[in-house]
Each structure stands twice: as C-alpha cells, then as structure tokens.
Design goal:
With 279 residues, the chain is an alpha/beta fold. The chain has 9 helices and 10 strands.
Length: 279
C-alpha cells in the first residue's frame, strides 16, 4: 500500500535522506520499551537493510519512521525536515500483499489508487501506471483482478503502486516473506532493478540474512527487544549483482556469515563480532 506523507516546513541541506535519532517507543504510559534509543541514517540513494532477532521491534520502528506512529521520544527527519505525520515523499510496501491490494479493483486501478489526491491530469496518471507496470514486468495484466494473479505477481502490483507515486524514499517491510524461494529471488532482483532505474532511497526490513547482504549497501543489525542498534555492516560487493554469481562470491559468503553472527550475538547480548568501519 502506498502511504502519502507530509513534511514540516523548513528544509536543511543534508546528505541523509532519512535520519533516525534516539528513537524510543513504548506502548502505553510507563510500559516497556519496544525500541530503545535507535539511531542511524540512510544516505540519499542508498539501500539499507534492517535485520535482527525476532521481537526486536523492526516493524514498530518502520511505522515510526514512516510517520504512521509517533515515537515516545526521539526524532525522524526526511531530507533534513522532521516528520510529523505520514510524509508526501515516501511510500511503503507491506509484507501482506493480499491485504494491501483491493480485490474488487483491477490491476490498473490498484496501481493508480495512490495518485488520486495528487491533482494529476488523467494522461499523466495513465503514463505513470503504464511505466510502473512495465518496470515490474506486468504490462498486459492491467485488466486482471488481484485474485487472478499469483502471490509474486500481486506483490509486483504493490511495488508498482509505490513506484507510480514517484517516492523519494521507499520503505519495504518484509515484502517477500510470504512468497516461495524462486519468486523471492525474482523479486529481490526486481528491487535492485527498480533501485537502479529510479534512484530512490530504500530502507528494507527482512528476516532473511542472504537477502539483507544481497540487496544492500549497508546492513543495520538490531538487538533483541527492546530493540537497539547492535552494529552496522558496510556490504563490500559489486554494484551489479545476480543470484548465482554474487552468492557464490567468497566475499558474499564471508559477509553473510558475519551478519548471521551479528544477529546471533544481538540475540545473546554479546559483541564478539567486529565490523568494518561505515564508509
């Protein structure tokens, strides 16, 4: 589903597209912290994965970053401006595509849904929808209903809807967790292709260690609840990647093992693994 956002007035010139500073969130007054003092940045055009043990608060953090939920304390800024609500320059792709698409609308109408409040001419809306469907390989499926498509194709529709909105920042919350392994690989490569073509900033939440290394410029690892930043890992791989060559690269294998170790240590509260410096 595409989320429309608004930003507070007043722009600051900064390199970070997203800056998360000391975010803490509690459910209810005096309740335990779900995330605690989380701080990290995502540079413009960067693809960063957020990983960690189950229950570390990744989804809560994503809702806070998107403006869907206000933190108990701390701030989130987009391009130097504090986020005070769901902003205009950001879109979200959720895990459960079956709930984010409208089953009574055809593919074209689902993709164009988020454009209705932008004041665009009909021709511009049609152009955006056509370009977005082409980008995700769904040209020719415009007149189908979601229930006529496979799970992977439905998630492509959700991604196309986000692309049609032309966001500067794309949040993806475990978007491929509900599809089979082959479809997941195809959607990972689609994400890389979309990132190259549109140049947007992407923050990607996943439980899959291979996926986090394969997709990202950098991986941020959270500790077990209450979620805190345990470590950051710069991914040292060629910009152009593919499922066979990249995953056979010794650098991928080594970095995949290191991130796995970091997640294990985050669950245990240890800091045994060291990281390369963030560049």
């Amino acid at each position: 589903m595409t989320a429309r956002l608004h930003l507070d007035e007043g722009t600051t010139s900064v390199s970070a597209a997203l800056a998360v500073h000391n975010i803490t969130h509690r459910y209810g007054p005096g309740g335990p912290a779900v995330v605690n003092g989380v701080t990290f940045e995502v540079a413009r055009g960067e693809l960063v994965s957020l990983v960690g043990p189950s229950g570390c608060g990744k989804t809560t953090l994503m809702k806070t970053i998107s403006g869907l939920m206000q933190p108990t304390s701390g701030t989130v800024t987009a391009f130097g401006r504090p986020i005070s609500g769901v902003p205009r320059e950001l879109a979200i792709v959720f895990q459960d595509y079956s709930r984010s698409l409208f089953p009574w609308l055809r593919v074209r109408a689902n993709v164009s849904f988020g454009l209705s409040g932008l004041g665009l001419e009909r021709s511009e809306r049609r152009t955006r929808v056509a370009e977005s469907l082409a980008a995700v390989g769904l040209t020719g499926h415009e007149h189908k209903y979601p229930w006529e498509l496979s799970g992977g194709m439905q998630q492509r529709v959700a991604i196309a809807r986000a692309l049609a909105y032309r966001p500067r920042i794309l949040l993806m919350d475990e978007p491929f967790a509900s599809v089979d392994a082959q479809t997941r690989a195809e959607l990972e490569d689609l994400t890389l292709a979309v990132h190259r073509e549109f140049g947007m900033t992407i923050l990607f939440v996943t439980h899959d260690i291979d996926e986090s290394v394969y997709l990202s410029h950098r991986v941020v690892v959270l500790k077990r609840s209450p979620g805190e930043v345990h470590a950051e890992r710069v991914v040292d791989l060629p910009e152009t990647r593919d499922q066979i060559t990249t995953k056979a690269d010794p650098r991928f294998v080594a970095q995949r093992a290191e991130v796995a170790g970091l997640i294990r240590d985050a669950a245990l509260g240890s800091t045994r693994f060291s990281l390369h410096p963030t560049e």
